[in-house]
UniProtKB/TrEMBL annotation:
NCBIfam families: PRK08558.1 (NF006328). PANTHER family: HYPOXANTHINE/GUANINE PHOSPHORIBOSYLTRANSFERASE, XANTHINE PHOSPHORIBOSYLTRANSFERASE. This is Phosphoribosyltransferase. The lineage of its organism: Archaea, Thermoproteota, Thermoprotei, Desulfurococcales, Pyrodictiaceae. The keyword Ribonucleoprotein does not apply.
């Protein structure tokens, strides 16, 4: 267990309580007790905000929840597979409680890692990235599909997709990412990984450091190198044709 500052330790303990509150919407106290090893009466006090677990107990609850909570199954139940391999994430990105649950899952996987900015391309991943930034208490930066401010200076992230013979360009405001930043890149869906790779290259061009990648769904394995660790809620085998909806 890495050493945490007093503030980070308290924040982590509160994050665990928030996670319990979110899971209470899915599981009963009896089920949560079986998953965590904590008596129902104590869990009830945590969920109601009457007390919070110690740091040691919070880590133990986190460990047990990771072992016993199949968040991937919850996400999978909301992902719709349409004709010709299309995937619809509407029920996932439209559910604030699920988004926050996924955000806590990601941030706990990042425990001990320094993140100062969250970067997301202008896609359906914005709600997910917003929730992660909120939990981490860091700014959100959106790489947009056009230069919407003529007075802004941008760095470009060019994504070349050979399969559709086209190039998509994202624009990141230079002033929003500095050399001191450690950046988490977030997307809704990772297929080839080329979007993440292009954004990571732009972050490095700005002198900052891409430290991890998070996504709701990954299809197959990325075909290019992307910032690790890669934190994904649901892995899907690669169909013959798949696109965002």
């Amino acid at each position: 267990m890495s050493a945490l500052s007093k503030y980070d330790a308290i924040r982590f303990r509160l994050q665990v309580v928030s996670l319990l509150r979110l899971l209470k919407k899915i599981y009963s106290y009896r089920e949560l007790s079986a998953m965590t090893g904590i008596p129902e009466s104590v869990l009830c006090r945590y969920v109601r905000g009457q007390t919070i677990p110690s740091l040691e107990q919070a880590h133990e609850i986190k460990r047990r929840l990771e072992e016993n909570t199949d968040i991937r199954k919850i996400v999978a139940s909301r992902v719709e597979h349409l004709l010709e391999g299309y995937v619809d994430l509407t029920q996932v990105i439209g559910d604030p409680s699920l988004l926050r649950l996924m955000a806590y899952y990601v941030t706990m996987k990042l425990a001990g890692k320094r993140v100062t900015k969250v970067l997301v391309p202008e896609t359906n991943g914005i709600p997910f990235a917003t929730m992660i930034a909120d939990v981490l208490e860091v700014p959100l930066v959106i790489a947009k599909r056009n230069k919407d401010n003529p007075y802004e200076e941008y760095v470009e992230a060019n994504v070349v997709e050979p399969s559709i013979r086209s190039t998509i360009t994202y624009y990141i405001p230079r002033r929003l990412i500095s050399r001191r930043d450690s950046v988490l890149i977030v997307d809704d869906l990772i297929q080839s990984g080329r979007t993440i790779r292009a954004l990571a290259a732009s972050i490095e061009k700005l002198g900052a450091k891409p430290v991890a990648t998070a996504a709701i769904v990954a299809v197959g394995e990325p075909r290019v190198s992307i910032p690790q660790p890669l934190i994904v809620l649901l892995h899907l085998s690669e169909p013959s044709r798949l696109a965002r909806v």
